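Title: Prediction job returns without error message
Component: structure pipeline
Severity: low
Priority: P3
Assignee: unassigned

Description:
Job completed but the reporter wants confirmation the result is attached to the right record. Sequence as submitted:
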Amino acid sequence: MSRHGRLMTTGVAVGTVVLAACASSAAQSMSFESAPAPSLESQAVDALPFDGADDGVEPRLVSEPAPSIGDKTVHGSAGADDAPLADARVSTAMAEINGIIDNAGATLVAHALVDQLVAYAGPGSDQIVVRLDNPTDHGGPLVLQAMTSPGSTQLEFGWIEVLLPVRPNGTTAWIRTTDVDLSVNPYRIEVDVDDFNLTVFRNNAPYLTTPVGIGRGQTPTPEGSFYLAELLRPSNPDGIYGPYAYGLSGYSEVLDSFAGGEGVIGIHGTNEPWAIGTTVSHGCIRVDNTVIEALATFLPLGTPVDIGA
């Protein structure tokens, strides 16, 4: 099951999915390709060349490297050795995690190592829920949010529960720890649709807060638990999506498809900043361009996104 799609003026395609919920007027579509993510340690996003700009053709969305958690390793305190959290070293890495995670806000991110990641109905189960290609159809890495907590004893048995980028929203399944690298993520996002507000938390403390535009009328922003699945850079930073767009793991609950895509939800910039703080999109979450530029420098793929009232 792939997530194809195209960023719509009301929907952006992410990975192999389409983001649906961005524009407020006639639908426009932009194709894009996926790409790997830069390191959190650098706190910077490596720019990719624009694709199709100023050549008379419809601008395309180019997948942009997103910040990642270091080298997919667990980083200890100053002077501590880094230990990868995978394969035979799971127990050792768990000891590292238990020693360095001193807050309730950290989550695990799973970075696929295999060409096709198989997700099962339960640990040790033979029932396959979905097969996910890595890289994705757009050439980017397959990254999932792990539902299993850092330090969980489940890791010792070789399985981890993950949130899947598939319909229906909120679908989870189990994958083998030998098929992924795991890293600890201190960030999470909360979006309050009643207050039109987005807050980024780091180590469970508010780190950044900003007003947002959300879905309108019959195309509301879906509520639930999602994660950042891909970071895209439009060829026109002054266009409807602004300079960057994060594609989420979730989909519109009223649009089964949009402009040839699957109706994926996104967080992105805008060329209508005056509409922030209102119900304006087909489900996507809009922020000021300066905000999305800032988020793109430090938020890694796999970051949890909770949307609700």
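Comment from assignee: result matches the submitted record. The first strand starts at residue 7 and ends at 8.
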